Structure prediction request, 413 residues.
Amino acid sequence: MERLDLHQVVASLAFSVDLAETSVIADSEFKDYTADLNLSKHKFLNHARRATYVALKIAQNINSNDSFLSKVFLSTALHDIGIKKDIDSAHSNFDIILEHSKLGEELILRLPIDKELSTIIKYHHENFNGTGLFKLKGEDIPFISRIIRLADIFEILYDETKPNFTQRERICEWINEHKNTIFDPDLVEVFNKVQSIDAFWLDIENIAHNTSILDKIIPDIKIPVTLDDIKKIAEVFAYIIDHKSHFTYTHSTNLAKYVKKVCNYLGYDKNKTLKMEIAALLHDIGKLSIPNSILDKNGKLTADEMQIMRSHTYYTRLILSKIDGFEEITDWAANHHEKLNGKGYPFGLNAEELSLESRIMSICDIYEALTADRPYRKGMNRNDAFNIIQTMVDTGELCMRAFNIVKQALSEI
Prediction:
């Protein structure tokens, strides 16, 4: 059984959430200490990445224990996993933040990681004075939740469109003004020490362009995970991906079921079948980069919108290629819109460059899209879907052999 590194998998998948277009809207139903700030233009393009860096820098100044630092890394990287489909509301009004925190707890419990992290993530919006979502106060709030609270708001305060030296004083003043209210005062003192080093701010400024900045401070310990574990992680991210748009809320999970059926028909061993299932579950992870205004458009996309939509496979490859040992999974996932005649996207690969597994993934993806019910139309029956795919085979876009395999495998469903 192949084993991969949990830290690397989490870093790649969790930070993919940062691709989403997001904004902050202040709310008055609970004590929102950021309401006096103009945060409506804040973009979260590097939110998890930057918040994780801040949390780790604070944590390193408290405890050098690998287990502690690993928990800080994993919980901060995954702190926004409960965003569900309204990714732009992850830091919005009371009801949505409450849902986001509870769902985060639930999703973490599905992952093959320390279950303590679910509690940490559930309470990462608590205020130190007890005015947060769940009214926990002071020491009752998990310690790492308090670290994430500070790191999370630091990132919201930071404006990556401006030079860091123009905002250091403003951010530090704001954080210090809110110790004992939002923040643990002891953690504010640690933050003051951390931020006093110029390299901290230069790292913050450049972290979007230089991935090695964060890589260097991620705990240098390997936590091996099996392909079975990776599949559990992939299932959680498939949930996030599919729920970003109400048009595709079961697409990735359905695709994984079809792909498994084909793998069993072909007699693939357990490892290869798991890899194909993981590729199916994560094939659309690049869609986290696509605005919901395009994903949810009930009508024909414009040429510009289509170009943006087509980019999702590029980002799928970009995300998955960062994981060592994912080479086959990356190809099978990212090539699902490539065509044998070289007219697919994003790389225009040709028949010689597309494996049988990539060809199968592409056909299963089309089949699922055609046969699944959508809010705007009823799914096709099997024969009508196969007829459309046959036309694409006849025009040289799709593989006849792969199509016949898929037809045979899925005929039993």
